[in-house]
Amino acid sequence: MRRLAAATLAICLCLGLVACAGNTPASSSAPGPSQSSETSPSQQEISPDVIKEPESHEELVKLAQA
Amino acid sequence: MVVYAITSRLTEAAQAFEEKYGIKVEYSNVKDKEIYTKVTTEVGGNTTGADVIVVHDSYRVQSQLLSTGYCFSQTPLSLKNVIPTEYQQPLIWYFGLKLFLYNNEFDGGKQPFDNIWAMTDPKWAGSYYFKDANSEGGNFNFLTMLTSPKWSEKLAAAYKEYYGKDIVIPEGQTAGHVWTKLFLDNSIGADSETSMSKDIALKGQNKQWLGWTAYSRLRALNDPTQYAIDAITESSPFSSYLQPCYILIAKNVKNPYAALLWTEFMYTDVAWAPYGEESGSYNVVSSLKHSDGFTLDYWLDKAVVDDLAYIYDTRYEMEEFYNEVYYANH
C-alpha cells in the first residue's frame, strides 16, 4: 500500500512538473525557422478564455474604466 | 492601454475609443519585422509593453507569440456569434489581399495571363517583381501554402492546362516547389512594394511590367494622367493570396478589460473605416463595408489562404528551399 502511495505521489509530481513547464514561456528567441518540439496548432485544443469577461457589456466597460 | 500594430491607420480609432470610453490608448505603429522580437523581449522580461498586438505574419504569430505563451487570443463575448468560428482561434481582424498588378497600357488593357504557370514561362522572364520573402514574411507563408497537398494538386492540374503535359516533380518536392523555383528564377527582386508598384504603373513605358503586391497599393496610383495599372483577378488555379491580420493580447496584459473592449471596438464601423475605403481589405465581419466592390467570400474561391498549422510545421523547409533558389540568381 505504501509502495502504491509513493508511486502515485511520484506520478503526481511528474504531472505537476509537466504542467508547470507547459505554463512557462520558452526563452526569447531571435526570429528564424522553428524546428522545436513545440505543440503544433493542429494538436492544440481551443483554450478557454483567459480573461473572465462579465456577461454584461456595461460591466465590461466599467471594469475597463476602473 | 497600449496597442502595438503593424498598421499606421489606427490613430483615428484610438482617438474615437478614448472619446467614447474615456480610456487612454497609447498606439504604436511597429514594423512587421520588429514587432515579434519587441513583444517577446518585453513579455519574456515582464517589462512594460503592449496590452494588445495587431500582427499579420501567421508563422511568427504562432511560433513566437502563441506557442511560447507570450500572447493569447480571446474573442469578446459580443462577437462570438458574429465572427465565423474558423476566424476566432486565433482571432482574425481582417484579410489583406495580395495579387499581381500589371501595367494596362498593353493589349487593350487585358489581363496578361489567366494561368499562374504563365509566370514561369520564359517570355515573362525579367518582367515582374517579387519582394524578397526574407523582408516580407507574408510572401514566405504564401509560398509555403503552395506546397500543401491541396495547392500542389491544383497546381499540377493547372500545369497540364498551360503546358499540355504532365508536370515532372523532383523527389521530395511538390508542384508548389516546382512553381516556386521557376517563378523565382523569372522574377526581379524588389526592396519596396510601394516603389515597385509605382514603377509598374508609370505610363508611356515600352515594356509591360508586373509585380506581386498588396491590392491596396492601387489607392496611391489612381491618377490616370500618370499611371496605368490594374490587377489580375482571374487566374487558374489561384489569382491571389489572403493574408490574415490577427488581434492578440499580451500574457502580461496590464489592462485586461480595456484590452477586450478595444478588441471589440476594432470590429466597429469607426475603427474599420480607413480599411473599408481602400481596395483589398476584407473584415471577417461581412457587414462591415468593403468599398472596392468585392467581398471576402468572392476571394476565398480564388485565393491561397494561410493554414496556421501547415505553415507552422513546414515554413522552415520553404525558407531553406527559397533561399537556395532565390540567392542563386538575385
Describe the structure.
The complex is a heterodimer of chains A (66) and B (330). Chain A has 66 residues and is mainly α. Helices cover 47% and strands 0% of the residues of chain A. The N terminus of chain A is likely disordered. With 330 residues, chain B is an alpha/beta fold. Chain B folds into two domains: 155 residues, D-Maltodextrin-Binding Protein, domain 2; 160 residues, D-Maltodextrin-Binding Protein, domain 2, CATH 3.40.190. In chain B, 38% of the residues lie in helices and 18% in strands. In chain B, strands 1, 2, 3, 4, 5, 6, 7, 8, 9, 10, 11 and 12 form a twelve-stranded mixed beta sheet that branches. Chain B is globular and about 60 Å long. Classes of the chains: A mainly alpha (66), B alpha/beta (330). At the A-B interface, helix 2 of A face helix 2, helix 3, helix 8 and helix 11 of B.
Give a quick set of tags describing it.
heterodimer, A: 66 residues, mainly alpha, 47% helix, disordered N terminus, B: 330 residues, D-Maltodextrin-Binding Protein, domain 2, twelve-stranded mixed sheet, 38% helix, 18% strand
Summarize the helices and strands and which ones pair or pack:
The complex is a heterodimer of chains A (66) and B (330).
Chain A: H1 2-23, H2 57-65
Chain B: E1 2-5, H1 11-21, E2 26-29, H2 32-44, E3 52-55, H3 58-66, E4 71-72, E5 92-103, E6 128-131, H4 137-146, H5 149-163, H6 175-186, E7 187-190, H7 193-201, E8 210-214, E9 229-231, E10 240-250, H8 256-265, H9 269-276, E11 281-283, H10 296-300, E12 303-305, H11 308-329
Parallel strand pairs in B: 1-2, 1-3, 6-7, 6-8, 10-12
Antiparallel strand pairs in B: 3-10, 4-10, 5-8, 5-9, 5-10, 5-11
Helix pairs in contact in B: 2-3, 3-11, 4-6, 4-11, 5-6, 6-11
